[in-house]
Write a structure and sequence with these properties.
Shape: globular
Helix content: over 70%
Length: 480
């Protein structure tokens, strides 16, 4: 139980940068959607470019973050030597990408439809190269259990980015889409300067033998990462190519991207959990009780993501004001995207069986299968159903990868998940969601009151079954 308490503590601190940070970043959604009218397609451009950035970042990091944790914790290799080798490998790849990208900037911009604004892409190429390099010092901070500095640097980026965007788009009433990318470049550069202590003070060594072993471990993770990120962004990349009317592609993509942002609270929870869970799992890999701990972590992860799902859907009448009113027509994608994020989070939890057994090729196959399903749904159905096909494609893709990982994992690295408890939580969440959505209450405040009662019912069930108040810190002494 103490291990789970340490995991919860680290998750809470990492959540300061992930959950709170991204929530603050939501301030940019109303800023962008109000400064960039839906008919102009400006937010569609932002959505599309950042989708490409996410894909390129996975290519440049090449799974080396996970590789760093694996080899730094194996008890055989010097952790600082592993860090130096990883940093040099990722940094070299980032510099090569930047040289090629800027050298062929105009042809690339023309192919993507940004021929009139090539430096929108140029700025983001520099950003993604720096992000790739920064990912390794951030991983090193997690390895050294320094979540406070990790969170401080993440929040520095977010606060500075928000401030610059507010000054320009609100204070100066600006509307240039390219400034969103310029501000990202400025903020990423500031964080890079703040990381100098993690980039200096040691001797850089490229251990070629170690690098070969790391690449053998990480290359399957690269395939996994590519397929995994495509499950998140392929719809936003594919959409402009398959939507039958190029003139309105960015308009429709902007609506989808803005509404999907509301659902991203699930991604925040998953990311915060991952930051703490990955070093925790590899650190626990030699313990006897590790499988029981993983099973417990899975159950509690699902409990809190279901709680987040209900909270977002029950208060969507309030949360929808995070985006401009013209974008509200796309709100029907929110529950679908959130369900997809839950599947993705479960898949991430299931993924450790093949990472711990060094059979990472399985993860590549599972993610690839999910990606193929997602791409197939988008290519076949987007021309007919628009961005709704994007949402359903994501759910189908993540669901496929999740199920494959579970059934194969139970044969090769069996873990006794509490499927009965998990099933009851899912069923309860589905019933409460149905009661909230399909009981007609016209008055907004009465509707919110009714949904609050339902949310409290879910919380009461969680407390009674798995989190009795007597076990809570501070307040627990009043219930013993």
């Amino acid at each position: 139980m103490s291990n789970l308490k340490n995991l919860a503590k680290d998750t809470a601190i990492y959540g300061l940068s992930s959950i709170v940070g991204r929530f603050l970043n939501y301030l940019l959604v109303p800023v962008y959607t109000l400064a960039m009218p839906v008919e102009g397609g400006g937010y569609g451009v932002v959505t599309n470019v950042y989708a490409w950035v996410a894909l390129v970042l996975v290519l440049l990091t090449c799974g080396m973050e996970t590789g760093f944790f694996r080899f730094a914790n194996n008890g055989k290799d010097d952790p600082l030597r592993v860090y130096s080798t990883t940093l040099l490998a990722v940094g070299g790849g980032a510099l090569a990408f930047l040289a090629l990208g800027l050298g062929f900037l105009h042809p690339i911009a023309g192919w993507l439809g940004y021929g009139e604004h090539p430096w929108w892409l140029g700025m983001m190429m520099i950003v993604v190269a720096m992000d790739a390099v920064q990912s390794i010092p951030f991983a090193y901070l997690r390895y050294r259990r320094r979540p406070l500095k990790f969170a401080a640097l993440k929040l520095l980026f977010i606060f500075l980015n928000i401030a610059l965007n507010l000054i320009y788009y609100v204070g100066m009433d600006g509307g240039d889409v390219g400034c969103a990318f310029l501000f990202n470049l400025v903020c990423t550069s500031v964080v890079m300067l703040c990381m100098l202590p993690e980039l200096t003070g040691f001797r850089y060594v490229l251990d070629r033998g170690l690098l070969r072993r790391m690449l053998r471990y990480c290359l399957p993770l690269l395939v996994l990462g590519i397929a995994g990120i495509l499950n998140q962004v392929a719809d936003k990349i594919i959409f402009p190519f398959v939507w039958p009317d190029p003139a309105t592609a960015n308009v429709q993509l902007g609506i989808y991207g803005a509404c999907a942002k509301i659902a991203m609270i699930m991604a925040m929870l998953t990311q915060a959990f991952r930051y703490a869970y990955e070093p925790f799992v590899f650190g626990k890999s030699r313990d006897r009780d590790n499988r029981e701990t993983y099973a417990q972590a899975m159950k509690f992860f699902l409990i809190f993501t279901l709680l987040a799902f209900l909270a977002v859907m029950f208060y969507l009448d309030i949360l929808k004001h995070l985006i401009g009113r013209d974008y509200w027509e796309g709100l029907r994608v929110v529950p679908i995207v959130m369900a997809a994020e839950i599947c993705m989070g479960v898949y991430f939890n299931l993924s450790f069986w093949y990472k711990l057994t060094d059979e990472t090729r399985w993860g590549a196959w599972f993610s690839l299968a999910g990606c193929l399903v997602l791409v197939g749904v988008n290519v076949l159905l987007v021309p007919r159903y628009g961005y709704m096909a994007c949402a359903w494609g994501g759910l189908a893709g993540y669901g496929t990868a999740m199920l494959l990982s579970y059934f194969v994992g139970q044969r090769r690295y069996p873990i006794r998940y509490d499927l009965k408890a998990i099933g009851l939580y899912v069923l309860l969440a589905a019933v409460l969601y149905g009661l909230a959505m399909y009981v007609p209450i016209d008055n907004l405040w009465l509707r919110l009151l009714w949904r609050t009662v339902l949310l409290l019912a879910f919380l009461a069930y969680v407390i009674r079954r798995d989190l009795p108040l007597s076990h809570w810190p501070v307040i627990g002494k009043f219930f013993r």
